[in-house]
Amino acid sequence: MQDNHIPQAIECRGVAKIWDTDGEPFVALQDINFDVKAGEFVVLLGPSGCGKSTLLYLLAGLEGTSRGEVLSEGVPITGTSPQRGMIFQEAALFPWLNIRDRAPLPGKSCREAALFPWLNIRDNVAFGLALQGMPKGQREQRALELLQRVGLNGFAHKRPSELSGGMRQRAAMARALALEPKVLMMDEPFAALDIQTRAKMQNYLLDLWRQSRASMLLVTHSIEEAIGLADRIVVFTARPGRIKTIVPVTLERPRNPRDPAFHALHDQLAELLADEVDRAFAEQEALGA
Amino acid sequence: MSAVDTHVATSAPNPARVAPASPLSSGRLLKRLQRQLVAALWAAGSIGTIIGIWEFAAAMGWADPLLMPAPHVFLGNWSEQLHFFDMANTIGSNGEGGSWLAVISVVLWTSMRVLVGLLLGFVASLAVGLLIRYNLTLGKLALPAVTMFAPISPVAWLPVAVFLFGIGNKPAIFMVFIAIFFVMVIATLAQIDDVPKAYIHVARIMGASKRQVFRSVILPAILPGLFVTLRINLFAAWMVVLIAEAAGVGSGLGQIVMMARNTFNASLVFFTMTLIGLSGFIFDQALRLIQRRMLWWIDSGAAGGK
Known about the structure:
The complex is a heterodimer.
Chain A: E1 10-21, E2 24-36, E3 41-45, H1 52-60, E4 67-72, E5 75-76, E6 84-87, H2 95-101, H3 106-111, H4 121-125, H5 127-131, H6 136-149, H7 165-177, E7 183-187, H8 195-212, E8 215-220, H9 223-229, E9 232-236, E10 243-248, H10 260-288
Parallel strand pairs in A: 3-8, 3-9, 6-7, 7-8
Antiparallel strand pairs in A: 1-2, 1-4, 4-5, 9-10
Chain B: H1 2-11, H2 26-59, H3 71-76, H4 78-81, H5 100-134, H6 136-149, H7 158-165, H8 169-193, H9 197-205, H10 210-248, H11 253-262, H12 266-294
Helix pairs in contact in B: 5-6, 5-8, 5-10, 7-8, 8-10, 9-10, 10-11, 10-12, 11-12
């Protein structure tokens, strides 16, 4: 790279991730080059299994890259940092949970948003502050403030299982925001929610984004969600995940799905994705055969 | 913000803010009492059926009264049995007791051995299990040995218990300990491997050290499952303590059974068996209560019974 470039909140330089599954290399990501500016809202859009979530793991520092490097404000990412918060999808996508989830157990819902079932909502939100050694009284006060910010005042002493899916995601947001991250990453945070709640949560997220001025990096496979939220949409190809194109979204917020410009953009993205979805399907069928 | 507030109001599953430990309303209390009464009736019916069949068989002359005395016989002549129970926890004492207080003291001695063994076994297996997963080298070194020891029957450990601890309380406690230790280590490992990765990732991203992950995430996440395993192993502990007492301790229910066998006292055998059954039942109930109170986040549906 050029010597005099301005460090961005997040930079990916020729990133590849190759998993080793039983000695056979599995290319999850290839040639990933993009960056996220400070305060920017970037959405990663692509078919399932294209490596979007893997990329978030690399950026969070949970996994290392196989090739290339990921930088945070110009510094290579070598491990996790409270500066880069992350909100997880309903953890049900983990294979060992899917089996259990067939039975509608009350405990299943607790795993949504990865809130800790053994802590009440306030203590969940204060968890990161406790790790950092903030005194009990202070962090509980801070947690209550954050809960107010996400509209959950009065729910401090509830257990995660007593909250609805949308409320749990907001509690998870409060927990991530408690550490005042510069970048907040979200792995399909609203995938498990119903349509109405989802729309509310998206507005909600935009409010929080404006207040916190953090950079946002959200993974989704919903085109509507991507257009509704993003400054820029990074479109991924099917496996192995590459960046197909980056689409800037210049529509005024709040964005109206009935706006013709919204429609035009939707069609454009749908077309971009259609080939990839077909390819992904073909591959999955080939794997299943 | 107003959009959000209405959302809260509509999506709250339970608008009345009930604290987890709020007192039950009288209506709910009544319902709970009713449920417990029904459960108690079924329990009485269950035991009553067994007694009925037994009594019937005895009355018909199918059961030899000397070998299989009917319940009304071995429970009826309790005053004769009482003097086999001794207050003193000493070896070789028999026939100096004679009160219900002595019976209770014998039951308590046995219970104490079970309890101490369980407690030590639980804590030690938890610690070893966590250590195996915490330190990879140590884990690789310890795991094959644990897996090899696990299938060895506690009965095979009996001579070892006597070699190491002679006779008295210690070998009996050791037997309970060994009966649950290896199994519980393996259960601990299984539980640790089953902790949702998202929990660990959340903690790591928020800057948790490995130690903090183990203490603040893995430990609370595995406790409910381990407690269920402990409850299942409780019965194994009760069986083993009787064997240990029969072999090496001067007091306790196992010793009484042994004495009953040696003196061909069938009534005493069944009387003691009744006491053992009752004690095990009470232990199980107590553990369930602890589980409900202390591990409230447990998923009771997945915990193997309520």
